[in-house]
Design goal:
Two copies of one chain form a homodimer. With 305 residues, chain A is an alpha+beta fold. Chain A contains ten helices and twelve strands. Chain A has helices spanning 61-73, 95-110, 117-132, 140-145, 180-185, 193-212, 215-221, 228-231, 238-247, 269-283, and strands spanning 3-13, 22-38, 43-47, 78-84, 148-154, 157-162, 168-174, 190-192, 252-255, 262-266, 290-296, 303-304. In chain A, strand 5 and strand 6 form a beta hairpin. In chain A, helix 9 packs antiparallel against helix 10. Chain A is globular and about 55 Å long. Strand 8 of chain A pairs antiparallel with strand 8 (190-192) of chain B.
Chain lengths: 305, 305
């Protein structure tokens, strides 16, 4: 097999109570990618989208992920990647993770599934490092494994697929720019032990609530004492978005990744669509361009088509 | 009903990765307690054990728990508590929680179950405050609810019963004294955000592992970057106890509460008993008196007999 096409889903990381470790995959939006074998042991990038992303492989997240894979496999050939991205870079719903994961899943199929998903996650994390200056896997994990994932450890890499009930997400993407690296720099280096304990309680309860299908506990657990209070200043009308969503039945929600996207969870497609309406009502008067997505939490990660 | 007798179990809190929020109940040891109605709206304490605990209700953990219950219910009568404690105070396996929880569960039966378990937990926490100077529920919760519990929040109090597979605990109690208040004072007030994130990952993975019956993940999750490295200095041969237990098949383990007891988890009674032997071998040459308990993790909290 010399050519493989994949769909790579958007994902929501942090999920309010799981900064840098929790994430889930969306059914949409997703990127379309085709990877094909080329003779030279290098990577060629072709973008069929208007995002003006760098084409030099060393500066492209899919490129660096594939380069690290080529090195690890010691290949004497390389890959061309054709990408049609629908997940806007900088939207906070795992655009870079989708590029990196899509590329390595497709290339791995060409290599006869030589690498495990955990190996692929490590390659994709090189792309995340390029994008954000930090090695993190909280978007890579759901993008590859689907569903809700927890990154127990980065070193060694340990990813846990969580049990979860049927859930829907509504995401609003205000078209403003937040650089992940800057959003990281805002955070304190140290936190109070007592606040850390409260976050342990919330994260543990969130995982338990997913397993028990306890939607009320899920909602109570989605609180964040550490990251949200600092970063919400970057997102116009964040508190209003949240209040409006909760008032029409959202289980809970908050900043997706480092923003600017904001997500809310709900129990049904109808619930997700009501939240979409409520979000639009909050944002329409702002004059800020925005997009709203409603989607089931996908059990699938990157899918070969 | 004017007299109720209960058994109140020992419990293990913190459980390595869940400082101040995670805990589980042991099947043994347990305290035996009888509570009876008395005419005066006060509390009388009778101890049938040799632990020399204070008998003034304001200085006794069962006493203060009952006094706060009497105030909340605005009773014009009181309670006498007869206690035969088998859980040694200061052992680090929830001796004070057992006294406080046993007393309030028995008194609540006399009151016709007027209060919810969550109410009872709040009363019992008054006892914990007396014992340790901190309002915490990580022993109270498993002692009342049984099984594995997570305290999501103290204010408002939110306790989550976790799903868990059959598990056994081996506990060694070296007969040395560690004051909970002092063990708390050793801890840093602040922790690095990156360490907090690693602990979120471990706690989330621990909860997921219990729900998925994934014993290997359970073991990997039982690591603690924040509390154990500081407190283990209080427990002679801590590292040897852990290594010896792991070498005979323990899933994982660490300090119980603030110590000095050390617990290890295993999958079978035979496993628990092998660990007991291994612990004894480590401690026998030290000259320090010790007791070892092996017990299934109990699904029951305080039991009315």
């Amino acid at each position: 097999m010399n050519e493989v096409s994949v769909l790579a889903p958007a994902s929501v990381s942090n999920v309010v109570c799981g900064y840098d470790c929790l994430g889930f995959a969306l059914a949409e939006p997703f990127d379309e990618m085709t990877v094909r074998k080329i003779e030279e042991p290098t990577v060629r990038i072709v973008h069929h989208d208007g995002f003006d992303l760098p084409l030099e492989p060393e500066k492209n997240v899919a490129g660096v992920a594939l380069l690290s894979m080529i090195r690890a496999a010691n290949l004497d050939f390389g890959f061309e990647v054709e990408m049609t991205k629908h997940i806007k870079p900088g939207s906070g719903i795992g655009s870079s993770a989708a590029s990196a994961c899509g590329a390595v899943v497709a290339a791995n199929r060409i290599l006869g599934e030589r690498f495990s998903k955990l190996d692929l996650a490590a390659f994709a994390m090189e792309g995340e490092f390029l994008a954000s200056g930090a090695r993190h896997a909280d978007n890579v994990a759901p993008c590859l494994f689907g569903g809700f994932t927890l990154v127990r450890s980065i070193e060694p890499l340990d990813i846990v697929s969580l049990e979860f009930p049927r859930l829907y997400a509504t995401v609003i993407h205000p078209q403003i720019e937040i650089k992940t690296a800057e959003a990281r720099a805002m955070l304190p280096k140290e936190v109070l032990l007592k606040d850390a304990v409260r976050q342990w309680g919330n994260l543990g309860a969130f995982v338990a609530a997913l397993a028990k299908c306890d939607y009320e506990l899920l909602g109570r657990s989605m609180t964040d004492l550490i990251v949200e209070p600092v970063r919400k200043a970057l997102i116009p009308r964040f508190d209003e978005l949240k209040a409006a969503s909760i008032s029409v039945g959202a289980i809970g929600g908050g900043i997706s990744g480092s923003g600017p996207s904001v997500f809310m969870l709900s129990r049904s497609p109808e619930g997700a669509s009501k939240i979409a309406d409520a979000m639009q009502e909050v944002y329409a008067p702002t004059g800020i361009d925005f997009k709203v997505y409603s989607s089931e939490i996908s059990t699938d990660g990157v899918t070969i088509i």
